[in-house]
Write a structure and sequence with these properties.
Layout lengths: L2 H13 L6 H8 L3 H14 L4 E4 L4 E4 L12 H16 L6 H14 L22 H13 L1 E9 L2 E15 L2 E8 L4 E6 L3 E10 L9 H4 L11 E8 H7 L9 E5 L2 E8 L2 H9 L5 E5 L1 H23 L5
Helix pairs in contact: 1-3, 2-3, 4-5
Length: 318
């Protein structure tokens, strides 16, 4: 039996006011007297339990109420383990050795005997992009060793060789991205991990390192990173207003109430993703600014109208 199990046994007996001692540990786990005393000392000195010995009861008790062991009945830790397993599976990383090992260790500490905690939680993303395990391991190693990473990156039909200083590993909407300094382009770039065909950690130390400027990552809406180029204001009405009112699109967003519904304002670096987001609400979302986004929306709606007009005008089969 492990130290953790013996500690939990001792702790449970104390909570039940049974005043356990070294003899109880020896009898229950068939350990030596020296090991039993080390276990008691570990509970008192390492876990800082308010432990005292009662001479009349010939056993130990707690001098203060409310002491808890690490992970004891921790529903939050169990929730985390379930999320960890689910994220790994949904992102195509369920078999990543490091992830499996971490989950096993945390499960053993938080909930001995419960090996399928992911069964109580279901996380789901659409349009997920699985990542090759060897690629992911190389990316993690480059972060750990702070070394440059050579990747073969596919964009459309072209594969280019890049040398990258890793800055951040980003998980966004069920997809994994490497945010780093690209030597080929001479600037910060975002790479889909699923599009990296091959990755190799180099011996060369990374030149560019992450900064404390969190706005570099979170300063604008969506996955397109960089400095904010514009502020987008959207009028939502009807059911869309009811939904968006309780949603968080960005940490710096503001929501204004008006007689039509709400106006959402947020910073944007690239209009492509926000355009798609707005279109999903149909006529219940209207761009108020900037003019460039309003024109893009109008052009897209016009193209869609032409696309479906041909279907609407075609004669119905009898």
């Amino acid at each position: 039996m492990s130290l953790l199990e013996r500690i939990y046994f001792l702790h449970d007996r104390i909570q039940q006011n049974r005043f356990p001692n070294a003899s109880d540990l020896i009898e229950e786990f068939e350990i030596s007297q020296a090991t039993a005393h080390r276990d008691i000392g570990y509970l008192r000195d390492r876990l800082l339990a308010p432990l005292a010995f009662n001479q009349k009861k010939n056993g130990y008790y707690y001098t203060a109420e409310g002491f808890r062991l690490p992970f004891e009945d921790s529903s939050k830790i169990i929730l985390f383990l379930g999320l960890l397993a689910s994220i790994g599976q949904e992102a195509g990383l369920a078999d990543l050795p490091e992830l499996v090992q971490l989950r096993k260790k945390l499960t053993y500490l938080a909930a001995p005997g419960q090996t399928n905690l992911q069964e109580i939680i279901h996380c789901e993303w659409i349009e997920t992009e699985p990542v090759a395990t060897d690629v992911f391991q190389a990316v993690l190693q480059s972060f750990q060793e702070k070394c440059q990473l050579t990747i073969y990156y596919q964009k459309a039909e072209t594969v280019t060789k890049r040398t990258v200083d890793p800055l951040k590993l980003i998980h966004y909407q069920g997809r994994w991205y490497l945010y780093g300094w690209c030597m080929l382009r001479g600037g910060k770039r975002l790479f889909h991990l699923s599009r990296i065909k091959q990755a190799q950690v180099e011996a060369t130390q990374a030149i560019h390192v992450p900064t404390d400027d969190i706005n570099d990552i979170t300063g604008v809406f969506g996955i397109f990173k960089g400095k904010a180029k514009t502020t987008v204001r959207i009028q939502f009405t009807g059911n869309a207003a009811q939904s968006v009112r309780y949603q968080r699109w960005h940490p710096f967003q503001t929501i204004e109430e008006n007689d039509k519904g709400i106006i959402l304002t947020l910073p944007v670096a690239d209009e492509r993703e926000i355009l798609m987001k707005i279109l999903q609400f149909g006529s219940q979302a209207q761009v108020l600014k900037p003019e460039s986004l309003k024109r893009q929306i109008a052009l897209e709606i016009s193209a869609m109208e032409k696309l479906y007009a041909a279907t609407a005008d075609s004669p119905k089969k009898q």
